[in-house]
Design goal:
The protein has 15 helices and 7 strands. By secondary structure, it is α/β, with parallel strands linked by helices. It folds into 3 domains: 163 residues, P-loop containing nucleotide triphosphate hydrolases (Rossmann fold), CATH 3.40.50; 74 residues, Helicase, Ruva Protein, domain 3 (Orthogonal Bundle), CATH 1.10.8; 63 residues. A 5-stranded parallel sheet has the order 2-3-6-1-7. The longest helix is centred in the middle third of the chain and has 16 residues. It is elongated. It starts with 8 loop residues before the first helix and ends with a helix.
């Protein structure tokens, strides 16, 4: 595949045996995986934090697979996907006749996960009324099914995840502080894709192989301009968005080539960032802004200015330039650009 560098086979084999479908070897991701390896052998509660689409469930599975509970149940529940009136039953189960419509006994997720790991995704969406019951299970490792007075003892390791800022929710009294502190024993913060850009070629290669196999297509070429667009894009939907766009491109591919699936309006940045370019988000942002400024002759506003090229408001670009310390190079017949910025 053109323009996609891969790790040494032995390195990738070792990576995949430990972390499954987690793709990449950027410093930001390697730090997260090192944290996973530290906490996995313990039974401590883990809180996985990160934007939507960053792969929080994959991290939860890796924690389970690297723990002593590997081979035992890994049960998951998305707290935002279950209606409020059914969520308590999903978590703790119910007895026949416990409420209207309860025509049979139901085993809850905690009971299903006994001796294994329970992954509660979007824990920030758990209703306040259920939070004391969850806290009790975490502290006492016991619960009752709805409609039953019998106490069930369990041995469950909890991994929770959210894209919300739970500390801010606690301050707004939208989340219990005691539950937050009980969940936040060992936080693992996943970086957004824009902060691990050097992993994008590896992810593209992985998803191309996956979809080529599913669609029974030959896709063995990714043009440099397509790869550059992928590396430059901001990826607000993170890895999930990248996966979906590669699938779209694979559907449209022909002659073994992956087309660029990004609409022109989304390709606000077309700077060529080589794989060896600085990998931090700050460095990438600075390089992209400088490229746009140079291409526009250091004009910020207007239809041909750098702000329009980047798809940003003029004031937003100026604020980013100030933050990054970007100033116009001094020329004999021009004032320092920073003066124009401060006077804007």
């Amino acid at each position: 595949m053109e323009s996609v560098r891969t790790a040494r086979p032995s390195e990738w084999d070792r990576h995949e045996s430990r972390f499954g479908q987690i793709i990449g070897n950027s410093p930001a991701l390697e730090f997260v995986l090192a944290e996973v390896e530290r906490v996995a052998p313990t039974d401590s509660t883990v809180l996985v934090l990160g934007e939507t689409g960053t792969g929080k469930e994959l991290i939860a599975r890796a924690i389970h697979n690297l723990s002593n509970r590997c081979g035992r149940p890994f049960v998951k529940l998305n707290c935002s996907a279950i209606p409020l009136d059914l969520l308590e039953s999903e978590l703790f189960g119910h007895e026949k006749g416990a409420f209207t419509g309860a025509i049979a006994q139901k085993i809850g997720r905690f009971e299903m996960a006994d001796s294994g790991t329970l992954f509660l995704d979007e824990i920030g969406d758990l209703p306040l009324m259920l939070q004391p019951k969850l806290l009790r299970v975490l502290q006492e490792q016991e619960f009752e099914r709805l409609g039953s007075g019998r106490t069930h003892r369990i041995n469950v390791r909890l991994v929770a995840a959210t894209h919300r800022n739970l500390a801010e929710m606690v301050a707004r009294q939208e989340f219990r502080s005691d539950l937050y502190y009980r969940l936040n024993v060992f936080p693992v913060v996943l970086p957004p894709l824009r902060e691990r850009r050097q992993d994008i070629p590896h992810l593209v290669q992985h998803f191309v192989e996956v979809f080529a196999r599913k669609m029974d297509k030959r896709i063995d070429r990714v043009p440099q301009e397509t790869l550059d667009a992928f590396v430059s894009y901001s990826w607000p939907g993170n890895v999930r968005e990248l996966q979906n766009l590669v699938e779209r491109a694979a559907i449209r591919s022909c002659d073994g080539m992956l087309p660029n699936p990004l609409p022109i309006s989304d390709q606000c940045v077309r700077a060529v960032l080589p794989i060896s370019a600085p990998s931090t988000f700050r460095d990438c942002t600075r390089a992209v802004i400088l490229d746009a400024l140079q291409a526009s002759g250091w004009v910020v506003g207007g239809s041909g200015g750098a702000a329009a090229r980047l798809g940003l408001k003029r004031t937003t670009l100026i604020a980013k330039m100030k933050k990054l310390g970007i100033t116009r190079p001094m020329q004999n017949n021009m004032e320092p650009f920073i003066e124009n910025v401060h006077s804007a």
